[in-house]
Each structure stands twice: as structure tokens, then as C-alpha cells.
Amino acid sequence: MMGDEAGGRTRHSDFVLDTVQGGNRAGTSAVAASWCRSAIHHGLDPAQGRAVERVSGSDLARLREANGALLDAATPVLDSLFGSVGRTGCCVILADTAGVVLEARSGAGDAALFDAVGLTLGGQWSEAAEGTNGIGTCLVEERAVSILKGEHFASRNIGVSCMDAPIFDPCGQLVAALDVSSVRADHGEAMAGLVGALVQDAARQIEREFFCRHFADARIVHAPDAPGRGSALLAVDRDDLVIGATRAARRRLGLGPARQLAPKPLADVLGQQAQGGFEDGERSVALTWSLGVPTVVFEPADDAPDEPLSGDLIAGTVDPTSALLTLIETLAASGHCDVRVRVFDGKRRYDLVAKDAGERLLKASSYAAYGGPATECVVAIERLAGFRKKRLAERYPAEMSIYLARLRDELPPLPVRLHAKNLFGALRMHLVAWRDEAE
Fold this sequence. Notes:
The chain is α+β, with helices and mostly antiparallel strands. Helices cover 33% and strands 27% of the residues. It has 13 helices and 17 strands.
């Protein structure tokens, strides 16, 4: 029996490493992308057999004290959730943003099993420490996840199934992960789906309670919720100004991510809802390069293109921000900006071809902070793939001028102005302010 278990772990670790080294599945699988992060970014070995590290004593007490308001709001919900899942052999875990377990609930008959795998008070389950796992991966990706048995990175954890949801504080910032885990062999995908739904609902309950306690002196207004985005709550003061909003409300109403909201009239905030459109949903594209080949994870997943670009086409590329940095580095190193950069933004593949157009003397103005010599780099965009509609492609400027200048002698040239034209007309961007920290 022990030989079968050891053989299963060996096969699992071999499969994980094969997936990481191949890099192909990471573009379409969030689990494979997490495996790549675990091995490449964190330098973990799936076959390593060490025990889960734990925080204890005064260090754990300090973490619990720092999260006291969260624990006060969460305790009744954790008790209720455990009442629903505890008899099925599951434990309930609340971990902070570093993956440290602050609260744990398990049945008397199961406590030893969960303690043995580290699902207990003080256990450290960050992705950096344990690789792909429910708590750590949920915290990294800030979304609900289920990591079932062999989807874990570390072979020592393949007997565990984890269903997790993130928790955001009253200012919309990630504050914890709520986890329900099972070590029972008869808990399959169907069970995980049911438990996962309970976990997500409980996480939203904790967020609501935490928000209402934090803004106890304010009036709480329920804004229309976006499906699957949690409770959209607003805190309104006696002057009818919005002074707080949950993460769901911020996303729904376009209030931004800043911890402290600038007070706005409630009527104005709710009026923004009518604008609707693309920005109502949370969208992201995560690009990770391994051995020169990018992998892409879309959130939500249905944002992914129907026909992903081939590996040969996107190999050796960089993201758009890195392309600009390449332009800056070329000018700083050689004194000119003649360079071609292969770019991939997750959907579209194009080359940026920059030509040095010489030095220009820019004038400062009421809207342009920089005045002085600057190098004009004329950048052409050669569209190669992923621009599925001609009209959509035309929205991207075929050429632009980027002006780079040294704001201080010891700094590299930085963008101070941009001129471009596209389908919508002329585009002008100016550096409007900068601060010299040395002064």
C-alpha cells in the first residue's frame, strides 16, 4: 500500500515537471500556469517531502490581533459553514493574505488528519511556500478556485481537495482566503462543486458583515449586484455622500481601487450605473514568459480568443510595457532608438519598428511639464496576427511619435510626449508633472 502511494506521488511529480518544462498547457490551464509559477518563479520541487511550516505562539497571536476586526466579522459565518460541511469530513480555514491560517474548524475525528497535512492554526499555505494549493492560488489570482487532489503542485498534498474564495475588506482590498478542505477519497468533483458554492456564498457573507461593522455609523445602500461579483454595498453619510464601497460596488459603479474614496453624492454614483458597458466586468490577462514562450490566462476565461496564436508566432516576444522599456534601453545604450521589438499582448501579435528621427526642442506649456531637447522615435506598428476585423485593426495607430528626454542626467531617457493618429482622430499625450526626489 505504501509502495502504491509512493509510486503515485512520483508519477504526479513527474507529470508536474513535464508540464512545466513543456509550457504548452499553461496558456489554457490556470492550474498549469500556477504550476509554472511554483516551479519557475518560486523555485519549488513537487517531489520535496518537507512538512508545512507553521507560525505559532506570540507571532500567531500578533497576526490574529492585527486581523481582529476581520475575525470578529467572520466567526459566526465560519461556525455556520462548518455546521454545513463538518459532518462530511471537511475542515474550514480562514487564512490571511500571506497564507497563514488564522482560524480553523474540524471535527474531533478528523483533526489529526488535517493537523498532519498542516491545515491547522498557523499553517503556511502561500503559493510561494506550498506551490499550487487552494489557499495560496486563491490569494494570488484573487478569485474563487478549486484545487482537487492531483491539481496540487506538491506531491505530498495530492490527498487533499480544497475549495476557496477570496475575501475583500471594506476598502475593496484583498484581506483573506476562505477555504474548505477535505482529505476523503470519496469527495469528487460533484461534491467540490457543491462545497465551492457554499464557500463563495460564505465569503460574501463575511464581506457584507465586515463592511457593515466598519461603516456602522453610515447608512448602507444595496446597489444592483453584477452576477457573480459579490455584494455591491455603499456606505452613505448623513449628507448623502458615498464614503465607502465594497469591491463589488467599486467594480460595478466604476469607483476605482483607492482605499479611501473621495466622497461623492449618492445620486451621482448610482447614476453612473446607466453608462454600463465593457467596464462593468472585471477583466484581466496574465502573461508569463518561460524560456521565451508566453503563456496566457484570461479572466474571465471566455475572453480568450477562439483560435490562440501558435507557439512559433509568439515565441521570443515581450509584452507592450516591456517593448517601451526596450526602446528606452536602446536609446540609453546607443544614443539612437532604431530597434525592432516582437510584441504579444495576449491576443494580438505585432512588431514595433522604431526609427530615430533626430533631436527636437520641445516647449513647456500649461499642460506639458517638460521643455527642452528630446529624441523623436517614430514607431511603426506592423500588425501580424490576432486583428480579426479590419475596422478593429484600424483603431490601432499605424505609426506614432514618442519623444524621450532625460529629466535628470543620471536617469535614462523617459517618455515625455506622444503623438499618434488612428480611426478616432489625433491622439496627444504629454507628461503633465514629475517630481525630483533628490531635491
